[in-house]
């Protein structure tokens, strides 16, 4: 379950809490809250692991692109060295080597930019999810503090009966 679903469950739990008779307070199942918070704690590190994995994958892709570019350049140089006897053949080999090198550079740039964009997107999603989680927790705390302040402002505090 992802963090947003857990936040929705927490929000529902707070919104659907049973009111305490003759007060502005509500009864919330403490165990249910703690279970949701534990699930959130276990889910968030998984999303962080995924982001780290993406960064690692990006680095591996860049390294592979560089190795491929080096191999292509080396191949082009080898071909050029073998055909050095004739000037026209040498010129053509140099042009091909330059084209291969430029193509490899372009491919490396595209792979790097794509990997960075993907990593940024995942990290952005994680940032949004964490922001929503923080907002939901803050709203819950504000609601609880608001109800506590109503009692402190001169309201009559009545104890809840043991019937509920």
Overall structural domain count: 1
Mean pLDDT over the residues:
83
Helical residue percent band: over 70%
Report the structural category: mainly alpha
Cα-atom radius of gyration: 31 Å
Individual helix count: 3
Estimate what percentage of residues fall within beta strands.
Answer: under 5%
What does this structure look like?
- This protein is an all-alpha fold and 164 residues long.
- It has one domain (3-139).
- Helices cover 80% and strands 2% of the residues.
- It is built from 3 helices and 2 strands; from the N terminus they run αββαα.
- A two-stranded antiparallel sheet has the order 1-2.
- Strand 1 and strand 2 (26-27) form a beta hairpin.
- Helix 1 runs parallel beside helix 3 (87-152) and helix 2 packs antiparallel against helix 3.
- The longest helix has 66 residues, at 87-152.
- The chain is rod-shaped, with a radius of gyration of 31 Å.
- Mean pLDDT is 83; it is low at 158-164.
